[in-house]
Design brief:
Order of helices and strands: EHHEEEEH
Strand content: 25-35%
Number of domains: 1
CATH topology: YaeB-like fold
Radius of gyration: 14 Å
CATH superfamily: RelE-like
């Protein structure tokens, strides 16, 4: 079973983007239900990047299609925690539109990793 959570920063990013991209909520639900529940560590496609891995958490960036943008994609950064054999957690850290921002916020990821005292 996969549980989903969102950081406060992610919620703020999402709210701001949703004002402009009205299909974002449904596109995000599709990402969670169609892809992340089936393959939380990626499906081997080029749409996933492993940004960080330690003994407690893995940080991924995935490309997410948004119907409002036609050909462009959003990026979603999330932490994957395998808590037990049957319980997994995905916590969303950042969402951004690739057309507005080139890369993920590495400082935000470092701050998240500091919560586990295992940076690099």
């Amino acid at each position: 079973m996969i549980n989903f959570r969102e950081t406060a920063e992610f919620k703020k990013d999402f709210k701001k983007l949703f004002k402009k991209y009205k299909t974002l909520a449904q596109d995000f639900i599709n990402l969670k239900n169609k892809y992340l529940t089936e393959a939380p560590r990626g499906n081997g496609a080029k749409h996933w990047s492993l940004l960080h891995k330690n003994s407690r958490v893995e940080i991924y960036k995935v490309r997410m299609h948004c119907d409002s943008t036609r050909e462009s994609f959003f990026r979603v950064v999330y932490a994957y925690h395998k808590e037990t054999e049957t319980i997994e957690l995905i916590e969303f850290i950042e969402i951004y539109f690739k057309g507005n921002k080139a890369n993920e916020d590495s400082g935000r990821i470092d701050d998240y990793l500091d919560l586990f005292n295992e940076k690099h």
